[in-house]
Design brief:
Layout: H1 5-19, H2 26-51, H3 58-68, H4 71-82, H5 93-124
Length: 131
């Protein structure tokens, strides 16, 4: 009997609850990071991913995408991180929220355009090498 995606998710979630995140296998942690990226982007675009605590793990998520060979999604997420400018991407969620909020104060059109364009790119990137 084939194993479904929800079966895999349930298994990893059970292991996460039992062992804790840091004791999971690297591939299991990668699965969780990429699953959360996909869930947040599907629900509220990249802005939501960055706004929520999932954005705390953006650099680990970039490594996971790279190790999985998801080159287009990796490129798009990396470009979104670069949109935070010379000050860099704030790992601290409160600081990141302030920066996200400041984007709309400085130039709401730019914020919308960069994150919307990158958001659409995530879905276009679901090609042969990003499954």
């Amino acid at each position: 009997m084939p194993v479904s995606g929800s079966d895999i998710r349930d298994l990893i979630e059970a292991r996460w609850k039992t062992l804790g995140y840091n004791n999971l296998l690297p591939a299991e942690r990668d699965y969780i990071l990429v699953w959360w990226l996909q869930a947040e982007v599907s629900n509220g675009a990249l802005h939501q991913y960055f706004y929520n605590s999932t954005g705390d793990n953006v650099f680990d998520t970039l490594l996971a995408l790279q190790s999985l060979g998801a080159t287009n999604c990796h490129r798009i997420l990396n470009e979104a991180v670069a949109a935070f400018g010379e000050q860099g991407y704030p790992i601290d969620r409160n600081e990141r929220i302030k920066r996200l909020d400041s984007f709309s104060k400085v130039d709401s059109k730019l914020k919308c355009n960069i994150f919307t364009a990158l958001f659409l790119g995530v879905f276009e990137a679901r090609g042969a090498n990003d499954r």
